[in-house]
Amino acid sequence: MASKPIQPLVLDNIGIYGLNKQSSPSSLSPQYLTAANNVMLDEKGRVTTRQGIKQITDNIGETQANATPATNTLQIKSLGEYRSATGATTLFAGAGANVYKVNTANTPDTLDIQTFAGGTTKTDGNWQFTNFNNQFYGVQASNKPINYSGSAWLDLEDVASYAAPSGVTNFTPSCILGEFGRIWTGNIGETKDVVYYSDLLIGHKFQGGHSGSLDLRNVWAGDEIVSINGFMGKLVIFGKNNIVIFNGPWSVAYNSESSDFALDEVIEGVGCVARDSVQLIGDDIVFLSSSGVRSLSRTMVQDKMPLQDLSLAVKDEIRGHIVTADLTKVKAQYDLSTGSYLLSFGDRNIVYVFDFKAMTPDGGPRITTWNFDSKRNPGAFLSTDDTLYVGLGALDYAGRVATYSGFYDLEKEDVTASYGNQSACTTAGHVWESSTSKCYKDINNTYQSDFKTTWLDFEQPGISKFLKRFLGTWSGGKNMDVTLNWYRDYSVSPDSSNFTLDPTAGGTEFKYEAPSASGTTLYGSAKYAPAFHPKEYKVSLSRAAKVLRLEVIQTVKGFKASLLNMSIWAKQGKIR
């Protein structure tokens, strides 16, 4: 009897729906992953490595008198970008009792402490910032609001012509919005369910004129304000257990019959548990509720706003964090560069990445996760037009700002003790910062990227397969070490094999020619920037299995790697 031929078992579209930890791995389709650490999904659905966290500033303690590199514990808890009337921008960070300016005139950038003339002592750096009418404002619980005019910082109460809300003795709001021609604030401690709004175009005047307040005690029962947001011309107020939506916020203070300001909707039983989880994503708002990540969307057909749970695939894991994590350290950001909502549980060293570029069959975003060396936990995010900034918030690596770029987790080490002058520093290939007389060395830290498939039966659940070889095609990943683990028939102990990605670099040759008196002169030839061509890698397999699970562990060393496809070559065995 002739032996059966070896056949390819092709894994098309592996992992294109992202992570799913809620369903059983044996019942999921191959389009899902059961682990997806430090990976992203590109526009074609391919599993690719995340970028690195690249430190761009020094340590706060290296330039400030109130801390030293050895003892600095000032965690970056907030980031904000001030935009002036001319379009110029300045990045600020909150840490400890101070606000710091990211000074880009130095290399590396320095974190310059900001002074408040006559200002009160700040208790924490967990600010929420907003731009309004060419001014910059910040609030946080149990602290007085602050204001930056473009040239100086003041407590808001020290701004000329400041007027506190009527009847309020301690104006310390925890959330702020600059929109609809006013500053809106909420949860001042003594009245947790009242919104106070400023006069029209006057962000420091909360009494007189067209300023006022919205008392929500008759709208919801016993709730407190967590966040205030603008959405499609509506004012959205998030409580812990309710959401209130108003129409016509532009005309809130014009108490006339022609005013458009009116209560639109009250959503009961669903609220927001973390102020900094609320992010506007195009025509939607995403936030963290007590039951998971939710969407507040408005359709053209329906006038109301239906809620949608976006974290169904990791629901139990997210809810576990909500119950046990410090929710004041929860930070989120919509990253413009990747089209993703990033949700960080700062004290848990995990970031959930909700990718909105493509959706899963149930209508939700594709989910992957990021995790970091413990000393690089994100404590704050800020996405500008072209850059994602990360405030580093772990105790042993605090007081630094980084960007999401490159493919190393790059840190800057102060090596002034070994290279104490500019000549010695630059000769060694490091960077000398003259403003601080310090020498900095770039440390390129590698990081691990890994993913795991579901249990694969290749649509032949009852047939044993004699495993012969694995073939995978990667694009990029120069010098990347890869470990392939394969699990057979629900075993927890894998077989393993190691290999290294060594793609071929190539480019298109071009020539530059210019006319001369004698004709055409060839100045030289060169190549366009090299590109790494896709390459297939083979791994020999052994033994038999009815179902198979694959795990790929990659060490990122400065280059991106994208998985294009995988296949298993096997010979059909017995039906069992």
Quick structural summary:
The protein is mainly beta and 576 residues long.
Give descriptors for this structure.
576 residues; Jelly Rolls; 3% helix; globular
Helical residue percent?
under 10%
Stretches with pLDDT under 50, minimum 5 residues: 65-70, 299-303
Structural class: mainly beta
Measured between the Cα atoms of the first and last residue, the distance is 20 Å
Q: According to CATH, what is the class of one domain?
A: Mainly Beta
CATH architecture of one domain: Sandwich
Please list the strands of the largest sheet in the order they lie side by side.
2-3-37-47-39-40
CATH superfamily of one domain: Galactose-binding domain-like
Mean pLDDT: 89
What amount of the residues lies in strands? over 45%
Number of beta strands: 48
What best-fitting shape do the alpha-carbon axes yield?
A: globular
CATH fold call of one domain: Jelly Rolls
Radius of gyration: 28 Å
Largest sheet: 6 strands, mixed
Q: What is the count of helical runs?
A: 3
Describe the structure.
This protein is mainly beta. Among the domains are: 6-51 and 447-575, Sandwich (Jelly Rolls), CATH 2.60.120; 272-370. The chain has 3 helices and 48 strands. A 6-stranded mixed sheet has the order 2-3-37-47-39-40, with no helix packed on it. Strands 1, 38, 45, 46 and 48 form a 5-stranded antiparallel sheet that branches. Strand 42 and strand 43 form a beta hairpin. The longest helix has 10 residues, at 315-324. It is globular and about 90 Å long. It starts with 5 loop residues before the first strand and ends with a strand. The model is unreliable at 65-70 and 299-303 (pLDDT under 50).
